[in-house]
Design brief:
The complex is a heterodimer of chains A (184) and B (200).
Chain A: H1 9-16, H2 23-31, H3 33-58, H4 66-97, H5 99-135, H6 143-158, H7 163-183
Chain B: H1 2-14, H2 18-27, H3 32-53, H4 56-72, H5 83-101, E1 106-108, H6 118-139, H7 142-153, H8 158-165, H9 169-188, E2 196-198
Antiparallel strand pairs in B: 1-2
Classes of the chains: A mainly alpha (184), B mainly alpha (200).
Amino acid sequence: MNMFGHLKAEDFTNLLDGAELTDRLRAHLQSCAYCLKTFESVHQVRRQIEEMRMESADEYIPEPDWLEFRADVRDGLLSRSVKRDNTTRGWFGKLGWQPAMAWGMSMLLVVGLLGVIWSQRQSESRIPETIAVENAPPVDADLNSLVEISQSDVFDDLVQLDADEALHLQMILDDMVQEGVSQQ
Amino acid sequence: MDRILTASNVMSSREPDPDIVLVERYTSGDMTAFDELMIRYERQIYRLCYRFTSNTDDARDLAQEVFIKAFEHLSDFRKESSLKTWLYRIATNHCINHVKSNNQQFVEVTDTVRQISPTAQSDLEEKEQREHFRRMVKKLPPKQRAILELRIHEQLSYEEIATMSNRSVSTIKASVFFALEKLRKLVKEPLKPGGEVKLQ
């Protein structure tokens, strides 16, 4: 019985199979119009199915040639097993037939990997030198830039010279600049 | 005498299941067991498939697929259930899948009521009602249909169906009731106009 007191689906099936009901269920079925109606309608359907079964038991169903049927099943099994063998062999299966080739390919793979790793390490170790070279002043810098450098160095020193030395040095530099202009 | 009876009872209870013996022979490479197993079950499986398809070619193809699948996995058969239950399980699943994948079938409902005598008319109506009922059985959802087929046509016990479907006996009994209820509602439904009933 369910929470409303009605018969459960399982109880109806038991009843349809002719099982004995408990006193409580029988009393409910006699007093409940809903359960009685459900049972009667399902019982009718069940009876119709039984009739259908009886009819179909006598019904002639054309049957296949059983020898041919078995042969087809045997062929089906054979073709499936052949297909399965081919699939499991596959790529690795072919290598199994040529172990030397498989060994050679794996060696090539190892050597190739080692080569890649070695070249990567080499390129990594070269990187700081390149940076140093890039940061250094260009070797073929022109004369004017050299003069600028020397002048800045000289004038740094000038700060430390006394007045006479500084005047003398200034005169020498002025002469040099004038000579350079006249030569051009 | 008592001793003899007791001994014979023990002997009979120890007799191995012939199906299990055949399965062991087949899995150990004895190909004659193949034919013996086929002969035992080919007709039953074919008829079950026929009830789902109503077509001899489809039933033959389905039954062959069932046996191919069964023999392929015969080594996996655990012998916890009977071979019959195991085969029926494969066949039922196969048939359910077949019905599901071919749910676009149409069943023609021919207009056969013509100018005929009253007796013949009532016979015809009765026949028509039976046909309508058969069609409605086919219209049931595949799993409910399978349960009714196994219980009513194949006369399998609730325990066998429960083992096959990994359900409890109570669930199977309830499923039978719900299938009958569904069928009752379908039978009450009027035919759709246009003379065709689309199977679900």
